[in-house]
Amino acid sequence: NAEYMGVTLTARSKMRIIVFLFLVAVVSTISLAADLKAEHHCTAEQVALDNQEAIDESNWDLRKSENGIHIYTRGNIATEALLFKTVSVFPPSAYDGLYDLLWTHNLERQLDYSKTFITGRTAAKYDNDTDVHYIQNGAIWPVSNRDFCYVRCRNDIPRGVHVVVRSIEDESICSHVSGIVRGFMSDCAYRLEREEDGTAKVTYLLQVDIKGYLPFYVSNMANVKVMFNEFTEMHKLYGPSP
Fold first, then answer.
1. In angstroms, how far is CA 156 from the centroid of its own chain?
2. Beta bridge partners of 172
3. How far apart are CA 31 and CA 36, in angstroms?
4. What's the pLDDT at 213?
5. pTM metric for this prediction
6. Is the peptide bond before 142 cis (omega within 30 degrees of 0)?
7. List of residues 6+ apart from 13 with CB closer than 8 A
8. DSSP 8-state secondary structure symbol assigned to residue 158
9. To the nearest 10°, the Cα dihedral for 168, 47, 85, 53?
């Protein structure tokens, strides 16, 4: 027997208290994860609907179309940062590889398709469909490197997967790094779909404010090149557009 807060306990009572405290800890952890998930705007319902209209609408200006890669832009009255939509179709055999590249091992494989990526880590993971990534991207001197802290919210759609990407401002998850400017991503998403003919279509929405003193027209022009280069590298991995 043992004493707990002045009360003599049997071995069975002691075990019951241990189990109870363990269950309280588990419930508290689940509750905290749910609160954080809600705070960062990641619900399955929102993921299913978010960016849907932007992807499907026709009011886009074509900025570049080459090698089966189509880049569109449109303005936003709230910011000078343009919203980009990049669309490209891949061979039928590319679907599983693209899923692995864009979702399952996105951080580990960013160097496979992104020439600006320096390093990154998973800063938090709430469940199989929601996590937070921290990444650093390089820039050409004298522009400072940028970093981003963003939540990813995945949802299955009828013919594929839809992922919303949004920056979060939470230093408890992603602390600031000296000498690096924190950028901000909003209205971002990517969608991977199997088309009726079996091909795999990737649609990527991007709106990013890289902060600092660089004019928006410079970053807007740079994003056209960045998007084109990233999709070009994807096609090198998984084959040309049919």
1. 15
2. none
3. 9
4. 79
5. 0.79
6. yes
7. none
8. T
9. -130
Q: Which residues on adjacent β-strands are paired with residue 155?
A: 162
**What's residue 173's pLDDT?**
87
Mean pLDDT by 10 residues, the chain (242 residues): 49 58 48 47 52 77 96 82 93 96 91 92 88 90 87 87 86 89 87 95 91 84 92 96 90
Element (H, E) at 226: helix 216-238
Q: Structure tokens of 115? A: 């020439």
Taking residue 182's Cβ as centre, other Cβ atoms within 10 Å add up to 17
Give the pLDDT of residue 11. 59
Other C-beta atoms closer than 10 Å to the C-beta of 220 total 17
Token pair in block for residue 142? 């004298």
Contacts 24+ apart (CB under 8 A), 65-72: 66/228, 67/232, 67/235, 67/240, 67/241, 68/235, 68/240, 68/241, 68/242, 69/227, 69/228, 69/231, 69/232, 69/235, 69/241, 71/224, 71/227, 71/228
